[in-house]
Amino acid sequence: MSRRQFLRLLGGTAVAWPLAARAQQPERMRRVVFLHALAENDPEVKARIAAFRQGLETLGWVENRNVQVEHRFSGGDFAQMQAHATELVSSPPDLIAATGSPIVAALKHASRTIPIVFSAVIDPVGQGFVASLSRPGGNITGFTLIDFPIMGKWLELLKEIAPGVRRMTFMFSPPTAPWVPLFLRELGAAPASLAVEFSETAVHDEAEIKAAITAFAREPGGGLIIAPDPFMNTHRELVMALAKQYRLPAIHGFRQHVTDGALMSYGPDTADIVRRSASYVDRVLKGEKPADLPVQAPTKYELVINLKTAKALGLEVPLQLQQLADEVIE
Fold this sequence. Notes:
By secondary structure, the chain is α/β, with parallel strands linked by helices. The protein has 2 domains: 30-145 and 270-299, Rossmann fold (3-Layer(aba) Sandwich); 150-268 and 302-329, Rossmann fold (3-Layer(aba) Sandwich). It has helices at 3-24, 43-58, 78-90, 101-110, 150-161, 180-186, 206-216, 230-234, 236-245, 255-259, 270-285, 307-312, 319-324; strands spanning 30-36, 67-73, 95-99, 116-121, 140-144, 167-172, 197-202, 222-226, 250-252, 264-268, 301-306, 327-329. Helix 6 links the parallel strand 6 (167-172) and strand 7. Residues 13-24 have low confidence and may be disordered.
């Protein structure tokens, strides 16, 4: 082999070395932390985690290969939500995924730079999380849970399944449902033909839930609307037990409550919302800014009815309502 041929061969091999070395380099690991407002063992949380993982995998993000997903759980506890938010600022991940208004509020206060993608949040503009739905304008964007007109729908559905209801109260926990004043304002648009006296009931612990429902049940014709907030979600079994004890028809915002024994629910598919939020996690990790990603609303609402619970409450569910339902549990 001539000297010229040897140098040419050596040069070609040298060019191939860095290419081969790059091919053998592991993918860059990205760190995502998901903050949940509910408890780790809550079936709703498990469904959301599975949906999030599925959404990421569809987009090429596989846990422990190119993304590390850590989960933090709050169990509906407002103080715990704030503690998790503070903790993450000291060791910031590439992105934070979050469910629930209190968590997003705490994160907004803690950091203006870490990208945040929320899901299941109500009124992000009114709460100051984003400048507008179309142009969030900061480090936060995501997917909302419900719109205010659903309040009137809850009233109508509860009245339809229980025509004898003449009084309704909206039960919520102020720390985990800061959006409630705007919700209550929506009641002004409710049709007068419903002929329902409406009130609001704020609770902060289990003792207050028991006392409030017991007092409300002393008069006939009562019905409950349970706010879709983390505290009420966490204590749903107590609410359902008391509603059954006092024969109070109640409507909830999450399907999971009805499978657990509640009378009915009307609200979005939360697992679908979380699955969709993975698309924004993907886009942000690939370089896009939350400020440029418009906030998206739910695309699917579900009506779920539990006929067994209806029977226990002495209610006959109209056939038309059963036919409109997305799921009827017998």
